[in-house]
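Dear colleague,

Thank you for sharing your sequence with our group. We've completed the structure prediction you requested, and as agreed, I am returning the results in plain text so they can be pasted directly into your records. Please verify that the sequence below matches your submission; if there's any discrepancy, let me know and we will rerun it promptly.
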Amino acid sequence: MATTSAIKAAINKRVNDSKTVDYSIWTIGITTELSTRKEAHSNPQYWQYWEADSLDVAREVENYYLNEYPEQKSKRMKGGTGGDMSPRKTAYVYIF
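Please find the predicted C-alpha cells below.
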C-alpha cells in the first residue's frame, strides 16, 4: 500500500521516464476492481497501477492530476472522477 506522496512520486517518475514527457497524453483513474477496469479500457499496453493506503488517498491522487497539477490545465491528465466504490475494498490508482 502507498501514501499520496509515494503514488505521486511514482507517477511523476513514470511520466518523466517515458519517451514523451507530456502528462496530457496519460489517463488516470481509480478502482477497486483492477482487472475489470483494465479490461474496460481495452487492456492498455502501458498500464501501471499502485495500491493506495485508502480510497481517500486514491481520490486525492486522482484529483491532483485531473484538477491541480500541473498549473496549466492543458497539460493535465485525462480521466474523470466518480464511481461508487466501497471504502472497505482495496483501492488502486492506475495510469496508461
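Summary note from our side: The beta strands are 28-31, 48-51, 92-95.

Kind regards,
the structure core
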